[in-house]
Amino acid sequence: MDARDVLEPGELPPDVDLADLERSGANHAAAMNDLEYVVFRQRLLIADEYAGIASVLTDAASCPDPWVGPDPTRDPAWRDPQGRPVSAVRAERRSIAVRAAAMELATRLGMSEATVRTRAAHADILRERCPRVWEAFRSGKVPAQNAATTAQHAATLPVDAAEAWARFDEAMENAAQTLQPGKFRIRARVARERLHPEPLDVRHKRAAADRNAWFQAEHDGMASITVFGPADRVLTAFRNADGRARSLRSQPEEERTLAQLRADTLLDLMTTTTTPAQDARRSRPSVAVTVPVMTVLGHGDEVATLDGYGPIDAETARRLAGEASSWVRILTHPVTGTVLDVDRATYRVPKALRRWLGVRDPVCIGPGCVRSARDCDIDHRLDWQYGGTTADTNLAPLCEHHHTLKSKSTWQLYRDEVTGATWWVSPTAVTIDADPPPW
Predict the structure, then answer these.
(1) Residue 284 burial (CB < 10 Å; 0-12/13-18/19+)?
(2) Cβ pair 285, 293 in contact under 8 A
(3) Which of 115, 113, 114, 101 lies closest to 46, judged by CA?
(4) Interhelix angle for 131-138 vs 144-155, to 10°?
(5) Which of 111, 107, 110 is nearest to 424 (CA)?
(6) DSSP letters spanning 235-259
(7) Could you give the angle at the alpha carbon of 411 between the alpha carbons of 407 and 414, nearest 5°?
(8) Tens digits of per-residue pLDDT, 81-129?
(9) Apex 41 CA angle, 166 and 182, nearest 5
């Protein structure tokens, strides 16, 4: 071939017409083939990530010292101040080491700690209970969603049911490679129910004890509630709301959509209380709102902040101010009486100071943590017993999890007394700036 015959990248041979190529679909097929290969490589990398995370946490459990410091139980003269046996102390060290390692992985990989722990658990479950699916996942044949679904269901099988594990693994091997995630979730759930060795009524009774509800902040001043409970009651609640919504929708003057009516019906039911005399009334919330004073007075529309959620519109802030039976007004306009420091002899954090800390740091200051400050401990950065003051410069909200890691692992929290900057140093000496307030 002559050098003049060599084509540049993306250049077509002179005898090929671009329009003809596009009409034939050959270029589209080539693009899809390229994307398939990209996804294949992506699956390989994700599987490697799962395996790597699991390996780090396994190593932390087997060798806790880098994460929690030297093991004091090796000293024959050592005695636990709480009177616990050596086995209990070592078990706690392993647990905290794994949590400390997960916290560092989360900061380095840009994930939540929950994601890190979940991926490690999924890798361990697949390796032990579903080796066929695990091997297919490591080979790039199984999407990450299907691998996670397999692990989630396999994890709920009894710990001593090796035969059920094997049968579930066999049932999932091909389906995990061929079904899209939505349909695969149904297939996995049904297979798990059929292969579980324990009677369904026994499992249902145990699962019902874990019923719960979760709140999740959403965009544009909205939020959602998820309810986990017995299927019959949850389905009945939905059908009741759907029935009422459809009845309202049939009214001639009704302009709301069926979806809007379902949501309004459920919220009306959940925000209404019944007195002993069966008089229904709207419950009045007790809320904390940080709001510009001019907004409260109706002379401005600056963004207000609802405690536990974030920014809300001015109209909602004014409505809460008028409806709430207990409304904590924390104005952005300077006000007097805010406690920022107390006498050195006082350890307990006064209400006013705790309230101010919740404004300054609305969530836990642990890396990546979004637990509301109202649900956190107020931590003395420098322990009070070592001279730390009960002052805003030495206090910050830490959830129980991050408070434990600060106290019992080799994670360290520092603060520049001049600038007020706060940062963490990880067990492997990585410096991580404290997250700014989310709102």
Answers:
(1) middle
(2) no
(3) 115
(4) 160
(5) 107
(6) HHHHHHHHHHHHHHHTSTT--S-HH
(7) 90
(8) 999 999 999 999 999 999 999 999 999 999 999 999 999 999 999 999 9
(9) 55
> What is the pTM for the complete model shown?
0.71
Q: From CA 396, how far away is CA 358, in angstroms rounded?
A: 8
- Nearest residue to 176 via CA among 135, 205, 219, 214: 135
Strands 286-291 and 326-331: parallel
Measured torsion, CA atoms of residues 187, 190, 194, 198, in degrees rounded to the nearest 10: 130
Phi, psi of 272 (to 5 degrees): -115, 130
Which amino acid, 284?
A: R
Contact yes or no for 20/12 (Cβ under 8 A): no
Cα diameter, the chain: 98
DSSP state of 148: H
Choose among 329, 284, 283: nearest CA to 304.
329
Q: What is the pLDDT of residue 239?
A: 83
pLDDT digits (tens, 9 = 90+) for 313-357: 667 766 666 665 554 444 443 344 343 444 444 556 767 677 777
Torsion, Cα 172 176 177 179, to 10 degrees, reads 120
Check: CB of residue 396 under 8 Å from CB of residue 381. Answer: yes
Closest CA to 150 of 110, 127, 273, 354: 127
What is the per-residue pLDDT for 58?
97
CB count within 10 Å of CB 192 equals 19
Band of residue 207 on the pLDDT scale cut at 50, 70, 90: confident
- Rounded to whole angstroms, the Cα distance separating 112 from 400 reads 16
In this prediction, residue 282 has a pLDDT band, given cuts at 50, 70 and 90, of very low
pLDDT in tens, 359-404: 788 889 999 998 888 888 888 887 767 777 777 778 889 999 999 9
Between CA 352 and CA 189 the distance in angstroms is 50
- Check: CB of residue 357 under 8 Å from CB of residue 373: yes
DSSP three-state, residue 371: coil
- Give the rounded percent of residues in the chain with a pLDDT score beyond 70: 75
| C-alpha to C-alpha distance for 345 and 332, rounded to whole angstroms | 31
Judged by DSSP in three states, 327 sits in strand
Q: Are 392 and 379 in contact (CB under 8 A)?
A: no
